[in-house]
UniProtKB/TrEMBL annotation, chain A:
This is Large ribosomal subunit protein uL29m. One of its GO terms (cellular component) is mitochondrial large ribosomal subunit. GO terms for molecular function: structural constituent of ribosome. GO terms for biological process: mitochondrial translation. Its main location: mitochondrion. The lineage of its organism: Eukaryota, Metazoa, Ecdysozoa, Nematoda, Chromadorea. It is found in: Mitochondrion. The keyword RNA-binding does not apply. Gene3D superfamilies: 6.10.330.20.
Automatic annotation (TrEMBL), chain B:
Residues 108-135 form the KOW domain. The keyword Oxidoreductase does not apply. GO terms for molecular function: RNA binding; structural constituent of ribosome. Pfam families: KOW. GO terms for cellular component: ribonucleoprotein complex; ribosome. SMART domains: KOW. Keywords: Ribonucleoprotein, Ribosomal protein. SUPFAM superfamilies: Translation proteins SH3-like domain (SSF50104). It comes from Mesorhabditis belari. Belongs to the universal ribosomal protein uL24 family. This is Large ribosomal subunit protein uL24m. The keyword Transcription regulation does not apply.
Amino acid sequence: MFFRIINRIQPCTSQQRLLSRSPALQNSLLQQFFDDEENFGKQELRAKKRPGRSWTNEELRLKSSEDLHKLWYVCLKERNMLLTMEKAHKATARHFPNPERLDRVKGTLKNIEEVVHERNDAYYQLETGDSASAPKRTVTSFMGFTYEKRAEEHYSPPGEGQKGYEVPYLDDDAYLMQKLWNEKELCKERDRKDNLARRQLANDEMKHYKRGGRRTFDRLEDLKVYQ
Amino acid sequence: MWTSRVLRLPRKPFSELDYARHMPEEYVKNVQRVVPRKVWGERFGAPPIVRWMVHPDDAVPSSKRPWEQDELQASLKRQNKYHEKKVSRKFLELRHSQTKQISDQDWTFFMGDQVEVLVGKDKGRQGTISRVNRATNEVYVDQMHAKLVTKFSDDELKRLGVSQTLIWEEQPLSVEKGQVKLVDPNDNQPCNASWKLSKAGDEWVRVSERTGFEIPIPTQAEMTYDYAQAEKYIDVEGKDTPADEVLRITFKPKLMAFEEEIMESFGIKENRQRKPTYWY
């Protein structure tokens, strides 16, 4: 049923009337999945129909937890509505008007999560001394890389070889891997610098005639570009 | 403490005035297609490999806004070209933008400003800035430095059966190359301007370097994609939260986690004890 309705979205007014007569949009609960009918098939929304920017962290910090909880669901519904409309427009190969609305709602959702995390973090730091975010551990992988890894939560304590650690001395394979890796990175860096120097040297004429850079140098000063 | 100290500092209009001020950064990145096509992560500590839609070095700032239709088409075209070359393992020279955006502190041109054009057929004439492009350090002056263009090609005109119509299209003027200069309101002569703290030390003002007179910021400079003036913004019914409602403080600190607070407000009681878990 959904797709039949969605497929009818067209910019012309007769189609709009057709859509409004469909039973789905007369149902007020289902209607919440759809945008205002005036916005269907528009290239760009009028300023009066264009919602404003997302909530900032500073504004969200003024609000109680209940308010944030409510706002989260308001924004979630709005995001679902926009995603429905985006899919409907894409399915009928139409231009979805003002897609930045979606990013704005997503921005608000992200900010709410940040503010909630801040509050929880403050509470847990005070009560337990631990952060609210998942702990991180420094581990050394079998390839010899030492890096920060986000720890995962488990019901049982770690068994044999399940918990990673930082290793001060690498075994032979890891050591060789690191040597080769560093050599490759060094070569990449050298090539990058070389390319940069060539780009700086190339002028418009050289680009136009597809001519390469200079090959012979009489003076040491000219060579400096390549160093 | 730090926040209150920062709030007491004079506000910097040069970092706030921007047409794309409220455009989400992710959205702008997405329309420029500077987003990863695929990321190969989880490589046991080795850095992830990223295949881009358009490589960040290849995104060259344009004189049009990145979300405008023409610009979007150009980005998509470049994206396809980049992908095509990658798939066929061929070399594609990235464009490596040459222009470097002038910093906020050094930028003094805003919409609605009186400027003098210093090049071209309108050399020596004064006009108002109609558009600013920070990314390319260019401004458009109202009805100045324009050229006659046609929007349709000859084939299209033949197909549609319409005669050719020419329109005047303003061309960008570079600030970096000194093609425009601000007009000093004191003597109506072009001048260089810079940002200075006022004598009271509570406000950043734009002053002419030659005479030291203040060049006031026009109200038009406030314009963004969302509104012409911040005070005159009309809330969208059913979508926007009114400003006074946004700023109403309802936060009450409680010695509780967010989840516990919500559970309390819904009357949910939880007596079960959490089992210990292990993080590794």
